Amino acid sequence: AGDAAAGKAKAAVCSACHGADGIAVIPGYPNLKGQNEQYLVNSLKAYKNKERTGAMAMMMQPQAAMLNDNDIANVSAYFSQMK
Amino acid sequence: AGDAAAGKAKAAVCSACHGADGIAVIPGYPNLKGQNEQYLVNSLKAYKNKERTGAMAMMMQPQAAMLNDNDIANVSAYFSQMK
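Above: the input entities. Below: the structure tokens describing the complete assembly.
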């Protein structure tokens, strides 16, 4: 499992769309608060691997590409543990 | 916006993995309870359009393919309105 505190430091850019509280600022974007950690890991890797394409994936692919496996684990832990 | 009551009738199959209460039964799957309606619509259409590929997308593509636009709107309303 990831390190939520380390994830928080990496998650500032995520918050621009997904909200500082994990509730998305725009209806077309997903809330991440309390989402399953493993699902968040899988989704970020899917974007990084270009297995998700289309409009919003064009935003998420380059974001995910900037994260290594540890970053992905940590950011996922951070959002999954939000109450 | 979709019709949540109509969506409920279509959502029995979704519940097998995403939970009758919208909390996924397996950590690798996303919780859908209270998720943004428009995001759920976008995601289902992305699966239907094969814009999401990879392991779990192989499950979701054929599920989404069975839903027309009204079904997608209704199922999305159903899960987004879960408390």
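Note for the figure: Chain A has one domain: 4-80.
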